[in-house]
Amino acid sequence: MTGSRHKIIGGMFGLELPFTQPVGGWELPNGSLLLCNARSAFRMIIQKINPARILLPSYFCPTMLQGVPGEFKNRISYYGVDSALNIEGKSLESVLAEDLIVLIDYFGWPAPRDLIVELQRKGAVVLEDACQVLPGALNTPADFLLFSPRKYFGVPDGAILISREEINVGCWDMQPVPHDWWSKSLRASILRHDFDLGTSSREWFELFQQCELNPPIGPFRMSELSRSFLTYAFDPIRIAAKRKENYSRLYKEFSEFAVLGPLPDSVVPLGFPMCVPNRPHVLERLFAEEIYPAVHWPITGVVPEEFRSSHNLSTQIMTLPCDQRYEDGDIARMIAALHAFL
């Protein structure tokens, strides 16, 4: 398959239909709590443990704050993350017992295991935000582990929360995902699927934006459709292999711009993050070619300005798609477009 001119590169996944028989290659981890989205999981963790402080990295997705209940907003603090996505110096030395520390597995690279253990020795609770990791088995000592399948698969909703201790869902009145929101999200997924097959309508993009702006946040279950798809419809071996192959090709061409290094064997990448000093111009040119890198993340007005490394990274980074939707011709098209004006 070669990259076609009508095909856009980037953006949300379409619903991955049709499939004729179950793939059967991936199982939901034992003890998982299946929720409608990651923000709901974050809120439920906070309400469960009632942390003294919530320590977030200075480089993160601000939509995560939607999961923080109002009465906990004044408990938020930040720790430093540098331009290479490493935790800065001694920024976590002041951690105290009963603090909740969020560590992000940036773009699929796992957070340092020794750091997790060190924080727990101080009495802190550690949430490993693995929303940018391919869902599945992940060996971690963290107290909570959180996956977001929508970043890897074409499902309309879903988050997976795993706890070192069995999660007692009886303290929450678990509800179905709100129908109006879910119907809109499902329609966006179907329309994106149809668009990728050649229809001209881009209504899916507006619907996707509406769903992201007003998501349900609370003890809402993952839909049965998403659960069935995650259990039967995806081949994690193929998905991992394709993402690794595409990342390696992009890294070979643009290593001087890469935020992260060569791909370790154990990592399945979310995308190919790179820094370009003239990002607005580069994005404009790529958009004209129907190539849409993600921007992770705008933090101005959210994270204090004292975290200069994170703010500098935020103004230069963009993430090229390298997921399983894209074949050799699509990757070649991205490479050619970038070489033309980088």
Task: From the structure above, extract its key features.
342 residues, alpha/beta, Aspartate Aminotransferase, domain 1, Aspartate Aminotransferase, domain 2, 2 domains, 7-stranded mixed β-sheet, 9 helices, 32% helix
List low-pLDDT spans: 1-5
- CATH fold-level label of the largest domain: Aspartate Aminotransferase, domain 2
Put simply, the count of helices is: 9
Taking all Cα atoms into account, the compactness measure Rg is: 20 Å
How are the strands ordered across the major sheet? Answer: 2-8-7-6-5-3-4
State the shape: globular
The CATH class of the largest domain turns out to be Alpha Beta
Oligomeric state of the chains present here: single chain
Whole-number tally of structural domains: 2
The mean pLDDT is 90
Q: Give the name of the CATH architecture of the largest domain.
A: 3-Layer(aba) Sandwich
Give the N-to-C terminal Cα separation: 26 Å
Order of helices and strands: EEHEEEHEEEHHHHEHEHEH
Major β-sheet annotation? 7 strands, mixed
CATH superfamily of the largest domain: Type I PLP-dependent aspartate aminotransferase-like (Major domain)
Number of strands: 11
Helix content: 25-40%
Class from helix and strand fractions: alpha/beta
Strand content: 5-15%
